Amino acid sequence: MTTEMAGRAVAVDGHVLEVSGVTLRFGGLTSLDRVDLRMRRGEVLAVIGPNGAGKTSLFNSLTGAYVPQEGRIRFRPGRGGEHELRGRKPFRVSRLGLARTFQNIRLFGALTALENVKIAVETRQKTDPVSIMLGLPHARRAERESDRRAHEVMRFVGLGHRLNELASSLSYGEQRRLEIARALATEPELLLLDEPAAGTNPTEKRDLEELIRRINAELSVSVLLIEHDMRLVMSVADRVMVLNFGRKIAEGTPGEVQRDPAVIEAYLGSSSAEDTAVVTGMLSGRGGAGAGDEGEERA
Amino acid sequence: MKATTVSRGKGGGPDMSAAARLRATRWYQQPRWRRLAALLGTALLGAQVTGREGSSSDIFLALKENTTGTGMWIWLGGALLVWVLREFVSEQLAAGWAGVREGARAGASGPLGRGRELWRSLPWVRVAALTALAVFLVLLPLLVTRHWQQVLVDQIGIYVLLVIGLNVVVGWAGMLDLGFIAFFAIGAYSAAYWTGSLPVEPPVVLNNFLVIPVAVVTCLVAGVLLGAPTLRLRGDYLAIVTLGFHEMVYLAARNWRDTTGGTSGASVDRFEIDLGFWSYRWGLDPVPYYWLLLVVIALLIFLFLRLEHSRVGRAWTAIREDEVAAAATGVDTVRFKLLAFAIGASTSGVAGVIYASKLGFINSELFVLLFSILVLSYVIFGGMGSIPGVLLGAAILIWLPEAMRDQVPAQDRFMYLGALLVVMMIYRPQGLLPSRRRRRELEMAEEGAGGADSLGTSEGRRV
């Protein structure tokens, strides 16, 4: 896996994703209001915000599940070219190199863990049904190849020992990792993780943190992350973007965002001095003092 | 019930509060006795339904006869027995069965476990068993009467071909298709047209065997034409569209008399092979058709099993379980659904050609909606998604009404079939021999973990 995917290391500089003026409405409700977002190639960008701020709507707009009424979403893969994602079908978005996980885990529960990943590998294959039915050599080769790749990805996320378990019988943390494996198996350049730490225990959170770092460093995949767990966000994200009521209210390094009065108000509704201290602590993920040192800590 | 309890509560002892009285259950309110009452009621109804028919001169004749006859006592006794077994013995039985299954899973002890172990470890056991089955199936028509030979070919053989095709659509891709017989009709009329049996002349007259690929292509095209605009629809809507398609094809066959022959029909040539040095003509004897069907069925099962365990089968399962997640993973859902639809349609077309060539005659009434529904019920009864299951389902559900032919009045046969389906769906919704994936999906749906309903579609779930 490492050898194969590191091959296409960061070839082009600049932005992998450029979102400008994206507006998504459901009837009278504006879920996203002129959201701008520029994501550098190879960075980990976290999207935070209170519940209902439009984080998952943003993901759904990027991956084609929703079609925003206005705005542009430009995706620039490393091999060159520029693609408009707005209005594209979800499976086409996935084929361009943008993979996602879901907030509420959506695995194929009646299949084994390995089969879940194989489905993703096989979306990149072209073997036709007739060759499969006739058992032609190239169809058999493709099947072996998908098996090999799926094993590789499963080992990468640390599920090498759970290959033949049913996906639904895995533990919660393992299911989260299996979803990431399924997304990685499509060989994405940009990975969208929707609350990957939700419902996991502290050990699993640490493993996840390390996994995100390895995905970013070893596979050179850019990561867009929605997460409520501030400690995780502050430790893995290069930059943080804050959404509230569908609007971007702040963007910057974790340290900058924590001190931003608009962010503190969004999480609190007002900004008195003592509350600010509490929220700053919460945002730093350490429940109290010591906020603002994230830059050093992360290095 | 509530009102009486309250009124009794008022006059009752002082140590019991009204609320406690409301909560207390009388002996006859216990589920156990309720179940007995329900069973006895069902038995009474069953005795009436299966007993003597009524008479126009004495309207109470049937009621009198059926209440005083022995039939009712057999029914009541049966109900009582079922109740006793269920209430007092079933736990021990279930425990024993669980023990056997546990043993099988461990693979260490128990007759079931040893059998499965043997099956897995020794390839020659598998080969021997399959060979024995094949030999049995080849010789089967020689062991039965002419009547059963006809049933084996006209009904079981043809319907087995149909359920194998419909299983791809319903069982694997999870789409509800109520118009499957439309493609069967298209196949049959293709056979009639290309062999020059319809009032309209074809450009070239083909041998029946050559019509098979032509019918496959025709049905593929028809399936894609119907599917492309409609497969975006989900579950129920697709079912209605296929229902409408069936009616269109049926009414065209019925009313377009100059072309199809309508209800008076058209005769069709039978199968014929002429290789120069050797030729053979299929005639009235059903047995050669049986062998022909057996070859076609075996071939299709072989091909479809490969498909099930390939990227195509896995993609179908993914779509069935969670279409949104499948699309997000990069599965071209519309294309794979279309593929399933087209494969099902062309299988149905093959069956149509063989059917028309076997009967030597077709008319529009061979393709009524009932047969679409029957094929679907065979698939669901046998176990969606499992080829052995749907084969068994079709065989049993066709054999049963035929076997009952002499025991019960002809018009009652479908009533028993219906009752069997109802009971089956209540107590074993996954079918006789469900596929492992399907069974798991049903279990998850019951646990509330998955969104799969009986067809495995996942509409209504939000991203």
UniProtKB/TrEMBL annotation, chain A:
Keywords: ATP-binding, Nucleotide-binding, Transport. SUPFAM superfamilies: P-loop containing nucleoside triphosphate hydrolases (SSF52540). InterPro entries: AAA+_ATPase, ABC_AA/LPS_Transport, ABC_transporter-like_ATP-bd, ABC_transporter-like_CS, BCA_ABC_TP_C, P-loop_NTPase. Residues 17-270 form the ABC transporter domain. Pfam families: ABC_tran, BCA_ABC_TP_C. One of its GO terms (cellular component) is plasma membrane. One of its GO terms (biological process) is L-valine import across plasma membrane. It comes from the Bacteria. CDD domains: ABC_Mj1267_LivG_branched (cd03219). Signal peptide: none annotated. One of its GO terms (molecular function) is L-phenylalanine transmembrane transporter activity. This is Branched-chain amino acid transport system ATP-binding protein. It comes from Streptomyces aidingensis.
TrEMBL record, chain B:
Keywords: Cell membrane, Membrane, Transmembrane, Transmembrane helix. GO terms for cellular component: plasma membrane. It is found in: Cell membrane. It is a multi-pass membrane protein. The chain crosses the membrane at residues 67-85, 124-144, 156-173, 178-196, 208-228, 287-305, 366-399, 414-433. It comes from the Bacteria. GO terms for molecular function: branched-chain amino acid transmembrane transporter activity. This is Branched-chain amino acid transport system permease protein. It comes from Streptomyces aidingensis.
